[in-house]
Amino acid sequence: MSDNLKMRQFHKKSIFYDLTKNCVDTVLKFRYLIALVVFIVLVLLKVNGSSIGYWSNYVAPSAKSTVVAGNAQGIRSDEWSVLTPIFLSQQNSDTPFSIINPDITLSGQNVVITLDAPVKDIYDISKPQNWGFLFLDSDHGLAWYWDMKLILIIMLSFELCMMITKRNKLISVLGTAWIALSPAVQWWFAQHVGNNVFYAEAIIVTFYYFFRYFDKIYLKILFAFLFGLSCIGFVMPFYPAIQVPFVFLCIIFIVLIITDYKKKIKIRKRDIFIIGGTAVFVLLMLAHLYLIIKSAIPLMTNTVYPGKRVSAGGSTPPFTFNMFLSNVFLPYINTQIPNENSCELSNFFNFLPGVILTFPILFRRKTVSMKYAISLAVYSVFFALFMTFSFLPNIVDKITLLSYVTGTRAAIAYGFSAMLLSIWALAELSRSGGVNRFYAILVSSAVAVSYYATVQFAGLKGIFQVRDYLIVILVFALLNYLLMRGRKWAFSAIMAVVIVVSGTTINPINIGAQAIFNNTLSKEIQQLDKSDKGAVWMAVGNQTETLGTIGILIYANGAKSIDGIDNYPDMKKWSLIDPQHKYADVYNRSAHVTSQIVTSSTKFVLEGVNAFDVNINVNDLKKLNVKYVVSNNNLTTFDNSNVNFKALFAPDSSNYTVYQITYS
Questions:
Q1: In the chain, which end has fewer C-beta atoms inside a 10 angstrom radius, N or C?
Q2: Is beta strand 509-511 parallel, antiparallel or unpaired with respect to 67-69?
Q3: Strands of 522-656, DSSP E
């Protein structure tokens, strides 16, 4: 090849590189404006990622599907049949956005402590994802929730990656997708993982920028305020199994940031005022939060589940730290592993073993940011050991609150920190030239063996055969090699494909919230509730089909339902039909509640750690003051001298009938 031809090719590559770089730089420069425009457009179009469309499996819709791409995830019942209906119930209640929703169970439920639902309270200033429900309709409010949360996680992830990579833009862009589209985040987006990743990132990023812009008074005040809001928002919903590990991670980052800036800044009187004011603000808000949830706290902490659940670690099988190998399969299959599902199996992609084995080389190169790497490595290794072995004394477990952390939730903490360490390592190894080829091959081969052992011993064979994992194992062995060699472009290209395949198809693209409203049964419930406010409803099935989900549909439409979900036990309600508390161990828990009408004595049947069935004697319905019942059975067969059932509507297309009860 002639020198002139080589020069022309180099020139073309240079032009392409410059154009690409300039385009990326422009997008990053205006990222906040772009994010705002995208957010507005998505909300206007009512786009959300909810699996609310799964309601079509329970109630026949009278319009076309609201899912325009992907599939509603039935396994995400915590979202589509618990969280989202309760958020919508907050809008449709007779007392909209109250802290105690009167429609959920007989006594009402505090919707802040466990579900963090939108409320008209100053506390909700720390919940920007909830604001849309307060002033928009259900369709746009649900879109606001999903779009705001996703965009904020993306923006915060980029800032966090810029911090730990020393402002490497390419790797920070990859890291943003790596975090935001992680299967662990996407499968649990509306619940604890999505919430804690969001608020932990917010705490770290706002604390970092408080010091980064320490000489700019207005920015300093802004970030101090945002840090305070992030701390407040982190507290609810209360889920210590995830929150406790993330608190420790936030503390680690806060200490590291302080050590970075302690010699670069000088604290003045006004800074003490700002810091003190932020602390007072947080304490006052937390005191207010305590006051609005205090009545529910003993009801939660004294439950059989989860209040009395105690963990000492060591509950996961060996090699669980590599369970992310299943991530690429989870959006496309129904898992067959006993007691597991796609949500529980999901985790964060990471390359911890290979990264740690580069430490001796990076030490010799006197890498400046090793304290971040060491801190994340120690944290990750600790939780890898915690989820696999029970090694801490009971007193240490209790003092550190790790007694609330189960092995599967420790795996989430491990995966998140190991992922951040992997992002740091990619930036550092690409900057310093990586390790030599032989060492990288040796380590990558050893890691591949551990991947194979994971498939063999951690239960992954229940998803696919071992041979189906060979390509995945080879891809991740190659990624380990490229990372250790510092080949950021090749690594980023392959990793981007892995991220897209594993994370982008988990949640559907859904339009609006009408999947829960646009059906005959919902319209009948709304019609009756409008003319008979405060009446008590329930949904009953039979021994082969329970209708707890329909109980949830009832209060989503603004009526009062005694079954569906008890996020914490309604002891007053159950005492009416079990005055001797014979079945207290069954219903004293956070649980899905289903009901059946029987002619025998009332009894409670435990169906799972978080589910029970109420076989209620037909005459006991009066004790609960039930007036309307939704059922797919002919309830007139239960008529007697005390109770009479009258069908108010003909059965809908899903065979549900609404009955009115009159008592003698």
A1: N
A2: antiparallel
A3: 536-540, 560-561, 564-566, 591-598, 603-608, 611-617, 626-631, 643-647
- Rounded Cα–Cα distance for residues 528 and 558 (Å): 10
Q: Are 41 and 484 in contact (CB under 8 A)?
A: no
Alpha-carbon span 488 to 126, nearest angstrom: 37
- The tokens of 573 are what? 């309600």
Tokens of 638: 């239960």
Distance of CA 158 to the CA centre of its chain: 19
Q: How far apart are CA 603 and CA 601, in angstroms?
A: 6
Q: Which of 241, 197, 192 is nearest to 401 (CA)?
A: 241
The angle that helices 31-44 and 3-29 make with each other, rounded to 10 degrees, is 60
Name beta bridge partners: 608.
Answer: 611
SS3 597: strand
- Residue 340 tokens read as 């597991």
Query: In angstroms, rounded to a whole number, what is the distance separating the alpha carbons of residues 582 and 602?
Result: 11
Determine the pLDDT at residue 335.
Answer: 62
How is residue 408 annotated by DSSP?
H
Count the residues in the chain.
664
As a three-state string, the secondary structure of 482-496 is HHHHCCHHHHHHHHH
Tokens 């207010």 appear where? 288
Q: Which residue has the tokens 């002639």?
A: 2
Q: Could you write out the DSSP letters of every residue in 200-251?
A: HHHHHHHHHHHHHTTT-HHHHHHHHHHHHHHHHHHH-S--HHHHHHHHHHHH
Place of tokens 């662990």: 184
Encoding tokens for residue 451?
A: 């991947």
User: Packing angle between helix 407-432 and helix 240-261, nearest 10 degrees?
Assistant: 30
CA gap 534, 150 in Å, rounded: 37
Predicted pLDDT at 10: 47
Positions in the chain short of pLDDT 70? 1-18, 20, 62-63, 335-339, 459, 461-464, 542-547
How far the first Cα of the chain sits from its last, in Å, is 101
Q: How many CB atoms lie within 10 A of CB 513?
A: 27
The token pair at 391 is 């090694």
Upper half-sphere CA count for residue 544 (Cβ side, 13 Å): 2
CB atoms within 10 A of CB 38: 14
- Spatial separation of the C-alpha atoms in residues 300 and 567, rounded to whole Å: 8
Q: For position 339, what pLDDT does the model report?
A: 59
- Helix or strand (DSSP H, E) at 110: strand 109-110
Query: Would you tell me how many other CB atoms lie within 10 Å of the CB of residue 611?
Result: 15
SS3 state of residue 630:
strand
- Candidates 303, 354, 328; CA nearest to 502 is 328
CA–CA distance, 235 with 196 (Å, rounded to integer): 9
Report d(CA 582, CA 106) in Å as an integer. Answer: 20
Q: Do 275 and 224 form a contact (C-beta atoms < 8 A)?
A: yes
Domain locations in the chain as residue ranges: 48-111+512-664, 141-509
**Which pair of tokens denotes residue 338?**
């006993």
